[in-house]
Design a protein that fits this description.
Helices cover 67% and strands 0% of the residues. The protein is built from 16 helices and no strands. The chain is globular.
Length: 291
């Protein structure tokens, strides 16, 4: 995939980082009105930078080159985009930093059109369906499953445009999925702490099922990937190693989030909270509302 090795991959990431930095240095309109200099918290900026770095490693590094020949490297790309980059970008809370550098008049016109214009009524309807825990979970898992149907997966190896669309969908739907469980001002999940535990565990279903199928298969499932091997690991061994990538590194982000929200739900940091405790915003890196 020569296209993804072009300099514009790095250029896009650099532009995103600069744009985020500009927006993060600008106080909100509410902050200006009160004389406050309220900006994005430094730790969120670090999360956003780490998320961009994960995208760069996935798409413009030796990992991308290895993915042409090895299924396990291709699966590592998917883990980096969906389970590493996406949650880090969500924790970076890029929504307002990306919005603020636009001229105020333009922002008002865009907001007015999105909220009131009949032309965008379809978009508001779609958003009401997908920007929900159930909608985000279904899109995230179904998207992962569909792209790993052998015929479609093999097509991504032959067609650069399709491969690019696959990676875009992994990042965008990853952002949608993780935004339902990680506070990312000015958006906050509606789920309780226990709801976030269930949601995150359910979100890992597709990757676990895929890994199990890859592990127990007795023959290679992706002919196009097998044809690219240059020796060393057998196609079947490559496939089983890919399953290990999904079950190992791919499960770590889910486990971190599940155990954190389980800890909150059990009230371990507030003995008086007990099992009735719900999410309290502004408490930590995973659930803070700090900007």
């Amino acid at each position: 995939m020569d296209l993804l090795r072009a300099p514009w991959v790095l250029a896009t990431i650099v532009v995103s980082a600069v744009w985020y930095w500009r927006g993060s240095q600008r106080p909100s309109l509410r902050a200006v009105g009160t004389g406050s200099r309220r900006r994005v918290a430094p730790w969120r900026g670090l999360c956003f930078a780490a998320g961009l770095a994960a995208v760069l490693v996935a798409l413009d590094s030796p990992v991308e080159r290895l993915a042409d020949d090895w299924f396990w490297a291709h699966m590592l790309q998917h883990v980096l985009l969906m389970m590493i980059a996406a949650p880090l970008l969500v924790l970076g809370a890029p929504w307002m930093p990306f919005w603020r550098p636009l001229p105020l008049g333009l922002r008002r016109r865009i907001a007015r059109a999105l909220v009131k214009s009949p032309f965008f009524s379809w978009l508001r309807y779609v958003a009401s369906l997908v920007v929900t825990p159930v909608g985000a979970w279904l899109l995230f898992d179904v998207n992962l499953a569909v792209w790993h149907v052998p015929a479609l997966y093999d097509l991504t190896l032959r067609n650069t445009g399709v491969h690019y669309a696959e990676h875009i969908s992994f990042v965008l739907l990853g952002l949608l999925f993780w935004s339902q469980v990680l506070d990312s001002p000015s958006f906050h999940p509606r789920l309780s702490a226990f709801g976030r535990v269930i949601y995150t565990a359910a979100g890992s279903t597709a990757s676990w099922l895929l890994a199990i199928v890859l592990t127990i298969a007795t023959t290679p499932l992706y002919p196009a990937q097998s044809a690219g091997h240059k020796g060393g690991l057998s196609p079947l061994g490559d496939q089983q190693l890919a399953a290990g990538v999904m079950l190992g590194p791919g499960s770590i982000p889910y486990a971190i989030v599940v155990f954190y929200w389980l800890y909150v739900w059990l009230g371990a940091d507030d003995p008086d909270g007990g099992l009735r405790r719900r999410v309290a915003p502004r408490r930590s890196a995973l659930g803070t509302g700090a900007r």
